[in-house]
UniProtKB/TrEMBL annotation:
This is DUF3604 domain-containing protein. Gene3D superfamilies: Metal-dependent hydrolases (3.20.20.140).
C-alpha cells in the first residue's frame, strides 16, 4: 500500500534535501482509557501514516477530585492512569512488532493533564523507556526528561485553545526548550485564532482568544505547530480529524525526531498536503537574522483543488494567492497527458446504518500512479462517547494497474458531520480515457473528460441507499503551486507562516519562520 503520494518533482524540497512525512503523535486506545486495542491502532496507523505515537493517559496532578459534578470524569481518569501503569512495560513489545524501519516509525508516548498549565503529550525518540516521567509543571517535566533521556524526549501542549485554568495552554509557563511545537489542530477543533469554521465543540468548552496560536506569536513565543487526531477509538490519522507533517532528511526515526526538534512541522486536517516554505535555506520553524530584502519561497501540492494560499506576517494577512488567477504548477505536464488526483468517497445511506464496500477500479487510456487512503474512525474524543467495536481493517491496494479496496462506511449521523470513507488516486490520463469501476457489485464506466467537468455521483440502490461520489478532477495548476513572495525588509521580532485551504475545506498550516537578532 502507498500511504502517501510520492513527490517526484518538488524543486524546493529537493534543493533543501527534505521530504514530507506524515504522522499522528497524539491519539488514544484502550492502552489507558479509550476504545480499541493497541494492535488495531498501530495497524490502522500503518495503513496511512509514516509515523505514529499511540498515547496513554498517565497523570493529572491538579485533578478536581473534590468536585462532585465531575466525579464520573475523575473515576475514568484514575482507572485509566492505573491501566497505563500496569501496561507500560509490556506494551513496548507490541510497539516494536509494528516498527518497520525506513517505512513506519513508532514512538512511545503518553500525556499528563493539567488545569493550571494545560495538557502535555510526551514523546520519546527511542523504544526503550523504563517508565513514564511524571511532573506537576512544565519546568519540572523538562528537568525530569532531560535527566532521564537528554535530548531524546520532548513534550508539547495539546488542544491549546481551551482557556488557561481549564486545560488550555499557559503561555506563561510554555518553554520552547521542552516543547518545539504546540498542537494547534485536532478533533477538538482549530486554535489558529479566535474565529474559525472548525470551532471547539467538545463539552470542555469553546476556544479562548488568549490561548490561540496567534496569541502565542503576539507574545513573542517561538514554536512550531502540528495537528493530531486526539482520537479515542484506536484510529490514528483518522481522516479529517488532524495529523502532522515533518520535513525530514530521511525516512527513519532519527530523522523524523530531528525534524520535530527543529520545528520543521506542519499542521494538517486530513489530506497529505505538501506545503513547504523557506527564506533562503531557512525553512518553516527556523530562525533567520534580520534582512534588508527577504523573499519567501512557497511550494504547494494539494490533495485536490487548492482554493487559496495565505501568507501571514505578524498575525496579519500579508499576501493571498489564488492558483486559478496566478497559475504556477510545480509540474505542468507535457500537454499530451494530464496528471491529476481523483478522490473517491463512499458512504451516505439511511442514518444509523452502515455498508461494507468492496470493489475495484482501473483506468483505460491512462496510468494509475499511486493511491492514498483517506479512512476515518468514529467521531470519538472521549471514552464516554462510544463503545469498543470489533476492528475491521480497511484495505487499499494497487497492483497491475488496478486498485482494489474494502472498507465499512457508516451513514452520516447528521447533516454537518461526515462519516464517509474514501481514498485518492493519483493518475496520468489522456483525452478519451475511461474509468472502469466495480463498487459493491455495481459496474460503472465513467469518462475521465466528464470528471474534469464535475463530480459524478450515484446510489447503489433507491433513494436513501449507500452512495458514492467521484470528485471532480483538478488540472495541474489547480492542485499545485510554486512561487515567491517578496517580503521587503525583515526585522527582529517578526514571524511569517503560510496556510493552504482546499475547496473541500481540507487545510494545511506551516510552522512560522521567526526573525531574531540571535539567529
Amino acid at each position: 500500500m502507498t500511504r502517501r503520494f510520492p513527490e517526484r518533482l518538488t524543486p524546493l524540497a529537493n534543493r533543501l534535501g527534505l521530504q514530507p512525512l506524515y504522522g499522528d503523535i497524539h491519539n488514544h486506545s484502550a492502552l489507558s482509557y479509550g476504545h480499541g486495542r493497541l494492535e488495531d491502532a498501530l495497524a490502522r496507523a500503518a495503513l496511512q501514516l509514516d509515523f505514529v505515537s499511540v498515547t496513554g493517559h498517565a497523570a493529572w496532578p491538579d485533578m478536581p477530585v473534590d468536585v462532585p459534578e465531575v466525579a464520573h470524569i475523575v473515576d475514568f481518569h484514575v482507572k485509566g492512569f492505573a491501566k497505563l501503569k500496569a501496561n507500560w512495560k509490556s506494551h513496548f513489545e507490541t510497539l516494536s512488532a509494528y516498527e518497520n524501519p525506513g517505512h513506519f516509525a513508532v514512538f512511545p508516548g503518553y500525556e499528563i493533564h493539567s488545569c493550571a498549565h494545560g495538557d502535555y503529550t510526551i514523546v520519546y525518540a527511542d523504544l526503550d523507556v523504563a517508565e513514564p516521567e511524571l511532573a506537576d509543571t512544565p519546568e519540572d517535566l523538562k528537568t525530569a526528561l532531560a535527566a532521564a533521556k537528554g535530548d531524546r524526549a520532548l513534550a508539547f501542549p495539546h488542544h491549546i485553545g481551551y482557556r488557561q485554568g481549564a486545560r488550555g495552554i499557559n503561555w506563561d509557563t510554555f518553554d520552547p526548550a521542552l516543547s518545539p511545537f504546540v498542537e494547534m489542530f485536532s478533533m477538538h477543533g482549530c486554535a489558529e485564532e479566535s474565529e474559525s469554521e472548525r470551532s471547539y465543540l467538545h463539552s470542555m468548552g469553546p476556544v479562548n482568544g488568549a490561548s490561540t496560536m496567534r496569541a502565542g506569536l503576539k507574545r513573542g513565543a517561538v514554536f512550531g505547530i502540528v495537528g493530531n487526531t486526539d482520537h479515542h477509538s484506536a484510529f490514528p490519522g483518522s481522516y479529517g480529524h488532524g495529523r502532522m507533517a515533518v520535513y525530514a532528511e530521511a525516512d527513519d526515526r532519527d530523522a523524523i525526531f530531528a525534524a520535530m526538534r527543529a520545528r520543521r512541522t506542519n499542521a494538517l486536517t486530513g489530506d497529505n498536503i505538501h506545503l513547504l516554505t523557506a527564506i533562503g535555506d531557512t525553512v518553516q520553524g527556523g530562525i533567520i537574522a534580520p534582512s534588508d530584502k527577504a523573499t519567501l519561497d512557497i511550494e504547494a501540492i494539494g490533495g485536490g483543488f487548492i482554493d487559496v494560499i495565505d501568507v501571514f506576517r505578524n498575525g496579519a494577512l500579508f499576501a493571498r494567492i489564488s492558483p486559478e488567477l496566478e497559475p504556477a504548477p510545480v509540474d505542468p505536464g507535457d500537454g499530451a497527458t494530464t496528471e491529476t488526483i481523483l478522490h473517491v468517497e463512499l458512504g451516505w445511506g439511511a442514518r444509523g446504518k452502515s455498508h461494507d464496500w468492496a470493489g475495484t477500479l482501473n483506468l483505460e487510456g491512462g496510468e494509475i500512479l499511486s493511491v492514498e487512503p483517506r479512512f476515518r474512525g468514529a467521531e470519538i474524543v472521549s471514552p464516554l462517547e462510544g463503545e469498543d467495536e470489533a476492528a475491521v481493517l480497511p484495505t487499499l491496494d494497487l497492483a497491475d494497474g488496478k486498485v482494489t479496496f474494502s472498507v465499512t462506511a457508516a451513514a452520516n449521523p447528521n447533516n454537518v458531520t461526515s462519516a464517509t470513507q474514501g481514498f485518492a488516486i493519483r493518475l496520468r490520463t489522456k483525452p478519451g480515457a475511461r474509468l472502469k469501476a466495480v463498487l459493491s457489485g455495481k459496474q460503472l464506466d465513467i469518462a475521465i473528460d466528464d470528471l474534469f467537468e464535475g463530480a459524478v455521483s450515484g446510489n447503489l440502490g433507491p433513494i436513501d441507499s449507500p452512495a458514492y461520489r467521484f470528485h471532480a478532477l483538478p488540472r495541474p495548476h489547480q492542485w499545485q503551486w510554486q512561487g515567491r513572495v517578496a517580503l521587503g525588509a525583515l526585522e527582529a521580532g517578526e514571524n511569517i507562516y503560510v496556510r493552504l485551504r482546499e475547496k473541500t475545506g481540507q487545510m494545511a498550516w506551516t510552522s512560522p519562520i521567526f526573525c531574531r537578532k540571535e539567529a
